[in-house]
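Let's practice the habit of predicting before peeking. Look at the sequence and jot down your guess about where helices and strands might fall. Then scroll down.
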Amino acid sequence: MKDIYYIQVKGNKFIEVEGTKVLISGFECFVHESLAHDKHWNVTEAITGMAVTQNYRYEKDAIERAEQLIKANQGWLKNMIEEKKEQRFVSPKYT
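Done guessing? Here is the structure:
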């Protein structure tokens, strides 16, 4: 089921997109169509709006790669989320 999420773009702004929730190693993410490349897929961390994977031709490949990256970098990602929360720079969905 698609829901409304936000992705972070240049200039520290957020853009609204439709996406499907994906839980990866306890982190809420979502998969959505790429804005840059037609018919490609991205996975984004939901609280910060930061891209985890970008421009994969197949949705399942974007998710599989995101799982690998998050598993290998859980501590870093957790710290980034906390840092963004402290800066009060989180997705409008979570404010």
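How did you do? Residues 59-72 form the longest helix (14 residues).
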